[in-house]
Design goal:
- It is a single chain.
- This protein is of the alpha/beta class and 397 residues long.
- Among the domains are: 173 residues, Alpha-Beta Complex (Spore Coat Polysaccharide Biosynthesis Protein SpsA, Chain A); 91 residues, Tetratricopeptide repeat domain (Serine Threonine Protein Phosphatase 5, Tetratricopeptide repeat, Alpha Horseshoe), CATH 1.25.40.
- The chain has 18 helices and eight strands.
- It has an eight-stranded mixed β-sheet with strand order 3-2-1-4-7-6-8-5, sandwiched between helices.
C-alpha cells in the first residue's frame, strides 16, 4: 500500500522542516497545499521533494483539506499539520495496519506537547483514499461525518484505533499559543458552524469548550448541556468531551459537586484510558480540595497507571502525600515530576518545603533556589513572594 502525506500550510517555514524530517522516510508521497505563504514555506516543501499546489484561503479548513486530497495518488492518506511530528517508533505498526483489507480509518493518538491537563487526543488522520471520504466542518475539519455515512452504505469497512502515540503536536506550547491570535478566529468560525447546525453535539462540545476557555461560562455551559441533550449516537469521545468541559466550567464557578459529577461521568466513558487523563487529574484535584485525600491519592495513582510519564500526576500525588504527612514518598514524586519536566517550578518549590520539614536544609535551599529561578521566568510575582518568605525565615537564597 502506498502512503501519502497530505498537508495544508501557510507561513510555516519555521516548523515545516522538522515535520517533513519526521515523515520523509515513512511515506511514499508528500502533498503540500500552500494557502498563501509569504515566507520560504513553498521552497522548503519543494526541497523535500513534495508535490506543492497553491490554493486561495477561503476561511474553511475542510474545503482546503479536500482540495489537498485531490492531489494525492497513494492508497492511504496521512494528514499532518506543520506543528506536528510523526513518531518514528510506530511507522512499522502503521504499515502493518494499512495492509488490513477491512481497514478504512485508523484513529491515531496525538500527544499534546505542553498541554499539562489533557496531554492526549484521538484524531482520524490516517485513512484509505476513498472517493466518499471527505472533510467537513470549517474549523475542526474532520472526516468522521463522511465516514459515518459511508459505513451505513458499506458496513464491512472497519475503523481501527492505534493505541500508541503516533503524532507529537507542539501547538500547545505556551509561546505558540501566545504568538497566534487563535481564539477569536476560532470563535467566529465555530459560531458560524453552530448557527447552521445548533443541535450538533460535536459543534456544541467544541464551541462550548471555547467559551469556557474564554471565561464566558454561561454560554459555555448552555452549549455543553445542549450537546448532552442532543446526544443520540454512540460517539463516546464527544460525550467524554461534553462532560469533561462541563466539569471544568462548574469547577471554575466553584460548583464543585456538579463538577465532580461530570468528571466522574467523563472517566466512565469507554474510550482509551490515556484520553481520560484530564478528567482523572481534575477529579483528583476536586477530591483533594475537599479533603478526601484517600480517594484523591487513588485517582492520581490511576493517572500514573495510565501514563507513568504524566508529570502533573506525579506532582499532584506528591501534594496529596505531603498533606497526609507522608513526606518521603512525596519527595519521590516531586523528583519524578522534575525529571519529566525540568522547568516545573512548583515541583521544585514544594520539594523545598518537604525537605525543609525533614531538616534537610542544604537540599531544601537548593530546591528553593531553582524554584525562584524558574518562577522569575514564568511568574515573577511568585518568585518575589517566595524569596521574601525565605528571607523572613532567616534564609538567604
Amino acid at each position: 500500500m502506498r502512503l501519502s502525506l497530505c498537508m495544508i500550510v501557510k507561513n510555516e517555514a519555521e516548523n515545516l522542516p522538522r515535520c517533513l524530517d519526521s515523515v520523509k522516510n515513512a511515506v511514499d508521497e508528500m502533498v503540500v497545499l500552500d494557502t498563501g505563504s509569504t515566507d520560504a514555506t513553498v521552497e522548503i516543501a519543494c526541497s523535500y521533494g513534495a508535490q506543492v499546489a497553491e490554493f486561495e484561503w477561503g476561511d474553511d479548513f475542510a474545503v482546503a483539506r479536500n482540495e489537498a486530497l485531490k492531489h494525492v495518488t497513494g492508497d492511504w492518506v496521512l494528514v499532518l499539520d506543520a506543528d506536528e511530528l510523526l513518531a518514528d517508533s510506530v511507522v512499522p505498526l502503521l504499515r502493518q495496519l494499512i495492509e488490513r483489507e477491512e481497514a478504512l480509518v485508523i484513529n491515531l493518538v496525538r500527544q499534546e506537547i505542553g498541554a499539562t491537563q489533557s496531554p492526549y487526543s484521538l484524531v482520524s488522520r490516517l485513512f484509505r483514499r476513498h472517493p466518499a471520504v471527505q472533510f467537513s466542518r470549517p474549523y475542526h475539519a474532520m472526516i468522521d461525518d463522511s465516514v459515518a455515512q459511508l459505513l451505513q452504505k458499506e458496513p464491512d469497512w472497519q475503523v481501527l484505533n492505534c493505541a500508541d502515540v503516533v503524532i507529537l503536536h507542539y501547538g500547545y506550547q505556551p509561546g505558540t499559543i501566545a504568538s497566534r491570535d487563535k481564539l477569536q478566529t476560532a470563535k467566529t468560525t465555530m459560531e458560524r458552524a453552530w448557527r447552521s447546525n445548533p443541535e450538533d453535539p460535536y459543534v456544541c462540545s467544541k464551541l462550548g469548550a471555547l467559551y469556557v476557555q474564554m471565561e464566558d461560562f454561561s454560554k459555555g455551559i448552555q452549549l455543553l448541556e445542549r450537546g448532552l441533550r442532543s446526544f443520540s449516537t454512540p460517539s463516546t469521545p464527544i460525550l467524554y468531551e461534553l462532560h469533561y468541559h462541563l466539569g471544568i466550567a462548574y469547577s471554575r464557578l466553584k460548583q464543585y459537586q456538579l463538577a465532580e459529577q461530570h468528571y466522574q461521568s467523563a472517566t466512565q466513558q469507554p474510550i482509551l484510558d490515556r484520553l481520560k487523563l484530564g478528567a482523572y487529574n481534575n477529579l483528583g484535584n476536586l477530591l483533594k480540595g475537599k479533603g478526601d485525600l484517600l480517594n484523591a491519592q487513588k485517582t492520581y495513582q490511576t493517572c500514573l497507571e495510565i501514563d507513568p510519564n504524566f508529570a502533573i500526576g506525579h506532582y499532584n500525588l506528591g501534594m496529596t502525600l505531603k498533606a497526609k504527612g507522608q513526606l518521603e514518598p512525596a519527595i519521590i514524586h516531586y523528583q519524578t515530576a522534575i525529571q519529566l519536566d525540568p522547568n516545573y517550578a512548583e515541583a521544585y518549590q514544594n520539594l523545598g518545603v518537604v525537605l525543609l520539614k525533614l531538616g534537610k536544609i542544604s537540599e531544601s535551599l537548593q530546591a528553593f533556589q531553582q524554584a525562584i529561578k524558574l518562577h522569575q521566568q514564568q511568574n515573577p510575582a511568585e518568585a518575589e513572594r517566595l524569596q521574601q518568605g525565605l528571607t523572613e525565615m532567616g534564609f538567604q537564597v
